[in-house]
Amino acid sequence: MNNLDVRGMACPLPVVQVKRALEAAQGAELRVLLDDGAPRENVKRFAQGRGYRVQEEQLEGGFAFTITGPGTPTAREAAPAAAVAAGPTVMLIGSDRMGDGPEDLGRLLMKNFIMTLLDLSELPDRIFFVNTGVLLAVEGSEVVETLNELGNRGVEVLSCGICLDFFKKKESLAAGGVTNMFTIAETMLNARLVLRP
Fold first, then answer.
1. What is the pTM of this model?
2. What's residue 65's pLDDT?
3. Do residues 69 and 51 touch, judged by C-beta distance below 8 A?
4. Mind giving me the DSSP string for 10-61?
5. Would you state the pLDDT for residue 12?
6. Mean pLDDT by 10-residue block, N- to C-terminus, for the chain (197 residues)?
7. How many CB atoms lie within 10 A of CB 67?
8. Where are the domains of the chain?
C-alpha cells in the first residue's frame, strides 16, 4: 500500500497530489492522510468520480482515506477529440455583477440574467461560481431560489471553496455545492462550450 500525506495543503494541491499518486500506484491501494472540510470532500469526490472506492477513517485532527479500485480514465483520456466536442456546456460566473458599468446596474443585470435561465429551453450542464460570483450562491442572495430551481432541473451548481473561505461564506452557502480549482479547470478543458456572462 502506498501512503500520501496532504495535510496542511491548500486547494487544489490535495486533489492534484492524490491524482498523481493514483497514476503512479497503477492500481495499488493508496492511503491518504488529509484535513477535514474541503480537502476531504474534494478528494473523495475526485476519487469516486473516477471509479475508485474510498474507505474513510476518522483520525485525531483529520481523516485517512484508503483508495482502492481500478479507476476509470477521464473523458479527455478515454475519448478521442471528437467526443470531447460532445462534452458538457459550462458557465463560469466570476462576479456578482455583469458588465463594467455602475455596480448597482451590474448586480441587477446579473440577477436578471440568472433568473432568465429558468425560461430557456437549453440549460448549461454546470455553473461554476468563482471570486465574487460565489456571493450569488450564499444566504441573502436574491438568486438563491433560482439557483436551487436550476439544480432541481439538473444543472450542477458549484462554488469555489477557496473563494467561499476568502469571503468567510462557506457556512452560508445556500445553493449547490463546493468545488475546487482542479475540478473547475478539468471540466472547462473537457467542455463542449464554456460561457461567461
1. 0.72
2. 94
3. yes
4. PTTHHHHHHHHHHHHHTT--EEEEE-TTHHHHHHHHHHHHTT-EEEEEEETT
5. 79
6. 88 86 87 89 87 91 88 50 69 96 94 93 95 98 97 96 95 96 93 93
7. 27
8. 2-68, 81-195
Note whether 137 and 164 are within 8 A (CB). Answer: no
pLDDT of residue 9: 87
How many whole angstroms separate alpha carbon 7 and alpha carbon 32?
A: 9
Beta bridge partners of 173: 138
pLDDT at 75: 47
**Structure confidence at residue 73 (pLDDT):** 52
CATH 3.40.1260.10 fits 81-195, yes or no: yes
* Amino acid sitting at position 123: L
**191: which residues sit within 8 A by CB, 6+ positions away?**
87, 88, 89, 90
Fold of the 2-68 domain: Translation Initiation Factor IF3 (3.30.110)
The SS3 of residue 152 is helix
Amino acid at 58: Q
- Return the half-sphere exposure (C-beta side, CA atoms, 13 A cut-off) of residue 3: 4
The CA-based dihedral angle spanning residues 52, 58, 64, 67, taken in that order and rounded to the nearest 10 degrees: -10
